[in-house]
Design goal:
about 575 residues; alpha/beta; Urease, subunit C, domain 1; nine-stranded mixed sheet; eight-stranded parallel sheet; 18 helices; about 30% helix; globular; Metallo-dep_Hydrolases_sf
């Protein structure tokens, strides 16, 4: 099938012609599932099998969300806890639009897919896959039809790793363990949540700073971070260690965040939902923005990237493996109920419902801090659009958030509506910057593809997978990104003006994105694996080898085909630290 999309202006920061004098207006050509150059035979242009008129529109690659909680048991627990917040199952019928699956902040897998596609997103990553729950997480994400999905393997609080670090095991053994775990669980990257803190909580510790020794293993979060950052780099993963820092939500936690950057020792590191880790203690409320301190640190440390975790006002639910801080946050639950549990001693799980209010000083300043980070970091390839769905708010708020970033007048209006003391203490009013369409394309397409090692997407470059989104040009950026005219997934039109395009004859095109490491290159021998199994058996109720998801199991049992990706293109070696003055 040869497809031509004509008349759109291409917005692609990686393509030279998108900045051409004609504004990049031209054709996008697709053959089957790939983007191609304009085809011709003996100098004559070929006619397309099907054409789409995109005059008055822009063309972008499909959006990529690198941090959104869309799979795994924590979502199910949240739905069970908040069943009274959902439209009632029993009263809902096929003719009623208010279904439980349509919850604003806890939609079902199928509704999640529809809402992402209706904004032009085609790839989404679940950032917290506990190894013992990986099958369940992948199975739920397999129902997010039309969207490529993947997960980050959760390490850094599991006893096997903590034991080995405490014993000063050689780095090559740590590397072998990390490589085996991320490959066995069919994940794309590695994440650590409150390094060592979830484990310390189980020993009745209520706070663990970056340089505080663990109550049992006598190692610090800094050592865990340094060890994992090096392991992720040396085994060749494209995405840096994905870090949920210590002391989430605690006033003054900017010190922990800066210490975490130092702990990386120059290796690439990604700080997730950074807004929740950017707090000072100044002012009458003893709560202030420390966004400028993180921005300054990022200018010096070029190895650091972040996603923001922007909060949006309204009811939501917070879900996190960080049971230490979810326990503390449970006192602020709205409504007053929560869930805390442990899963096979690999991590934790805390579900705490929450309502962000414009009338609250802290919530208003959190909102402003997120926008400060977006606007003060001048390189859109190092800051990523997230709400930490659903923790800061639902992902469906992205169009509104893009409007705030691209339109200073809209931002000033919103700033005038928050708590006046928060508005006065924020630097947001003095920031003139407005995101361009190229900035948006970089932050939501090209940069996430690069940092995740998704080398065939994020750009309209010929040879890439044909995930293409066509947006009608409007002055109102929020409305523009709220509903594309066309959404193509792997070359197939699946959305037109916000409605699904039915094609019963089409095969499923979405996939699970996962690394395919050659474990023989990490020197995993029988003796190493036997040691890992022995250590795992001391705290687990089943054998380590049961974590492994076979390649055939993904399509035949879980229901998703594997797509190998996520490795760096440059060879591994000693990191240069990415530092500059």
């Amino acid at each position: 099938m040869l497809t031509r999309i004509h008349g759109a202006r291409s917005i692609d920061p990686l393509a030279i012609d998108s900045r051409a004098s004609d504004g990049g207006i031209g054709d996008v050509w697709i053959r089957d599932d790939r983007l191609i150059e304009r085809p011709s035979v003996s100098g004559e242009a070929l006619s397309a099998d099907v054409e789409f008129d995109a005059s008055g529109c822009i063309a972008m690659a499909g959006g990529i969300d690198l941090h959104t909680h869309i799979g795994g048991g924590k979502i199910t627990l949240a739905r069970m806890l908040l069943r009274d917040q959902m439209p009632p199952w029993r009263e809902a019928g096929s003719d009623v639009g208010d279904l439980p699956a349509d919850s604003r902040f806890l939609p079902s897998a199928g509704v999640t897919a529809s809402r992402y596609l209706d904004m032009g997103y085609t790839t989404c990553l679940e950032p917290a896959v506990i190894p013992c729950n990986a099958r369940s997480a992948h199975a739920e994400m397999a129902d997010v039809r039309g969207i490529d999905t993947g997960g980050y393997c959760l390490l850094g609080n599991d006893d096997v790793l903590l034991q080995m670090i405490s014993e000063d095991a050689p780095q090559e053994i740590i590397n072998a363990y990390v490589a085996w775990m991320v490959t066995a669980t069919r994940c794309l990257a590695v994440k650590v949540v409150n390094p060592g803190g979830i484990s310390a909580f189980k020993f009745n510790q209520r706070r663990l700073d970056v340089d505080t020794p663990h109550p049992k293993y006598n190692i610090t979060p800094a050592k865990i971070i340094r060890t994992l950052c090096r392991a992720v780099y040396e085994i060749g993963l494209a995405h840096p260690l994905h870090v949920h820092c210590s002391n989430l939500g605690v006033p003054g936690n900017i010190a922990s965040t800066l210490a975490t950057i130092d702990a990386a020792d120059g290796y690439p590191i990604h700080l997730t939902h950074a807004q929740f880790h950017c707090y000072g203690t100044e002012g009458p409320y003893k709560f202030s923005s420390a966004a400028s301190q993180l921005v300054d640190a990022m200018r010096i440390n070029r190895n650091v990237t972040i996603d923001v975790g922007q909060i949006m006002f309204g009811q939501t639910v917070t879900i996190s493996a960080d049971s230490m801080h979810q326990y503390e946050n449970s006192h602020h639950a709205k409504p007053r109920k929560s869930v805390l549990l442990d899963i096979e001693c690999e991590a934790g799980c805390g579900v705490v419902p929450f309502r962000y209010r414009r009338t609250e000083f802290v919530n208003s300043l959190q909102w402003a801090i997120g926008l400060e980070l977006f606007l003060m970091i001048d390189d859109p390839s190092r800051v990523f659009l997230t709400t930490d769905h659903p923790n800061g708010g639902p992902f469906t708020a992205y169009p509104h958030l893009l409007g705030l970033l691209a339109d200073r007048t809209m931002r000033e209006t919103a700033l005038a509506e928050i708590h006046p003391d928060a508005a006065a203490s924020s630097s947001l009013a003095g920031i003139d910057r407005q995101y361009t369409l190229e900035d948006i394309a970089m932050m939501t397409r090209a940069a996430p593809a690069k940092i995740l090692g998704l080398h065939d997407r994020g750009s309209l470059t010929p040879g890439n997978v044909a995930d293409v989104v066509i947006y009608p040009i409007q002055n109102d950026i929020e409305k523009m990104f709220m509903q594309p005219r066309f959404v193509f997934k792997s070359g197939r039109l699946i959305r037109r003006n916000g409605k699904p395009v039915d094609d019963a004859s089409s095969a499923k095109t979405d996939a699970t994105l996962a690394v395919d490491l050659d474990l023989t290159q990490t020197d995993i021998d029988g003796r190493m694996l036997a040691d890992f199994r022995n250590r795992y058996s001391r705290t687990s109720t089943f054998d380590l080898l049961r974590l492994r998801i076979d390649a055939d199991e993904m399509p035949e049992v879980i229901g998703s085909r594997l797509l190998a990706c996520g490795l760096r293109t440059e060879p591994a070696g000693t990191s240069d630290g990415g530092r500059s003055s």
